[in-house]
UniProtKB/TrEMBL annotation:
Keywords, sorted A to Z: Methyltransferase, Transferase
The keyword Methyltransferase belongs to this UniProt entry's keyword annotation: yes
GO terms (BP aspect): methylation
Identification of the protein by name: S-adenosyl-L-methionine-dependent methyltransferase
Family: Belongs to the methyltransferase superfamily.
InterPro entries in alphabetical order: Lys/N-term_MeTrsfase_sf
GO molecular function, one term: methyltransferase activity
Keyword Lyase: no
Organism: Arabidopsis thaliana x Arabidopsis arenosa
Amino acid sequence: MAALSSSMTISYLHSLSCNKSCLLTSQFSKPLFINQTQKKLRFSISFCLKQNESGIEQDEEEEEEFTVVTAVKSRFNEIVIVDTFASRYLLLDSTRNVHSVINKGGQNWTGAYWVNVVIVFNFESYQHFCLKDESACLPPIIPNGPIAIYGLGGGTAARLILELWPSTELEGWEIDEILIEKARDYLGLSELEIPTSKGGRLCIHVDDALFPSQDDSKRYAGIIVDLFADGKVLDQLQEIPMWLELASRLMPNGRLMVNCAGIETEVKNGKPQLVLDDLAWMLNSTVKILSEAFPGQVSWKRTPDSEGLNFVALTGGLPDLSDWSSKVPVRLSESVKLWKLCETVPLQLGALNAS
């Protein structure tokens, strides 16, 4: 596949943003094949996990037209916002990673723990993953106090947390001022800055979350870390001193919840294979560095789809899963039971790798 330069991609998408419609296909397993004679942009969203109200996995296929609302390149990102009949999506950087989903009609659930997005543009394909509903599980297992979101994006996580826990004080950190401007204009981010009936609200900081201009020592009850560049966890988050610094910003008994992305896996018959079951976390560099920074105090979970490629980590030890399950919304009550403590078994891991 011939790659396009970033400037060409943004320029073409920007030209489409002038009220032109294109075809969007949502699907689960098939890539979207583009007809070489077709000049329109085609866009495919493939959900790794789709659940109904009962928590049962469902396959769905649908086709919709979509409009590119805005496309602009900032110092930090290539920002594209697309609009469909049901939702609006924020795509960032050259990977077209979906960072925010705003569902229309008042439904703030994204319908998936992770969204696998495939965009085919002039014969180039991008595939990445992003965390959505998981952060809504954090408030019941941390002290009362403000929660920071490092990597605010378009505010999907903040919107859901304020819906479920409307008294929560949120502080969203985002380094990209233009992204915040576009999210306020097109994703309703400014609505979250207005206090709820219970007093909760989102306060936005346009700043580097890792090196803030203010002292945040022992300020937060929880910190949600969702920091990526070009589809990868930031390099700074592969260093123990950085995690110790972030932990110093927590109140006593506070926790970090971290989007750790995935791992490299063997592919058979076009499908990624499960790796090492309970030891799979050791192949994720971010979970591994967290476990080294906080020995015996890091828990992890893998997304509950059949592929199991993506990881979330939690500091502060393994919560009481039964108690936690009883305090979160019903659609997340089974999901929280999947958390496990990072337990190191070097000999077993070595033997499995050798085999």
